[in-house]
């Protein structure tokens, strides 16, 4: 006689000793939230709103159909490295390595710079608010993450950063250029002084240029002009904002002595053959993506102008393909500001538009939404939803208790 099969709910509620093998700090973490966008206009993840023209879609499809997916990636991996080096105009004496998006590169840098021999944990330093993957990578690889708050205008607090570099001597200094989620392109002279101080402290400075297609400048220009001052500097980019978010290709550039060591930690075949071929195809048609970036920059300026006309809101200057918008009334306590922003977010979502509520990411962001710059029609629809949601939120806020 066979035993009855336990129900799935009973099986899931039974003790699972194997969980004890998972680090307690990992079990206490929250997974990275990817919002469901089904049926919504998706303007929450800084994606390029423009797809490939139909003729290029067909050409890419035919090309991918010829890829030998029964084989591991071969020489095309190096072909992509060479194509990206040409595209970025890699400084002399520098090398380039590939990552499965910039997220993998951040993880590899933390892995390579962490200490596993019982010594005091290595330090990682970044101004905050900035990209959430920096502290996450530090935590997972047992580095001590140290945050220095940005100024109220989201520019660098140079004095506080210099003091932190001198006292902590961080292994890694992150400078997002421009910054996510604020869109800020930080003062160039201040960044240069921080990079110089990080070099004196014997650490690595990483310039994260994920949003470079939309920015007025790149730090690679400084590296080319002053190579001796940049031997400890790495510049990281991704093709996600270029227009290939679904392909997952990031790349890290720097002195070949540094890159050769970090590349040792990269898993073999970390990019699939189809991803590589998509990236090569895109670089061969870079002019198409350059034009898309130009349109996004143009739409960003129009969006900023429209947001400035919205009473009670404050859009911050942006050099990315996003705009940080403070929607909460000025002077509101943080908890009330966050609640107001959430009300606006939900109101926009109810009207079919998905943006990002960043209030919980950092105390300085309480009351803020992050809006991805879309096409002209996307932005018009977003502005209409935002205007209506703001009116509803204000009306709800002034109702008697």
From TrEMBL:
Signal peptide: none annotated. Pfam families: Aminotran_1_2. InterPro entries: Aminotransferase_I/II_large (IPR004839), HisP_aminotrans (IPR005861), PyrdxlP-dep_Trfase (IPR015424), PyrdxlP-dep_Trfase_major (IPR015421), PyrdxlP-dep_Trfase_small (IPR015422). It comes from the Bacteria. GO terms for biological process: L-histidine biosynthetic process. GO terms for molecular function: histidinol-phosphate transaminase activity; pyridoxal phosphate binding. Its cofactor is pyridoxal 5'-phosphate. Gene3D superfamilies: Aspartate Aminotransferase, domain 1 (3.90.1150.10), Type I PLP-dependent aspartate aminotransferase-like (Major domain) (3.40.640.10). Residues 40-385 form the Aminotransferase class I/classII large domain. The modification N6-(pyridoxal phosphate)lysine is found at residue 241. The keyword Transcription does not apply. Keywords: Amino-acid biosynthesis, Aminotransferase, Histidine biosynthesis, Pyridoxal phosphate, Transferase. It catalyses: L-histidinol phosphate + 2-oxoglutarate = 3-(imidazol-4-yl)-2-oxopropyl phosphate + L-glutamate. Its EC number is 2.6.1.9. The keyword Transferase applies. Homodimer. This is Histidinol-phosphate aminotransferase. It comes from Ottowia cancrivicina.
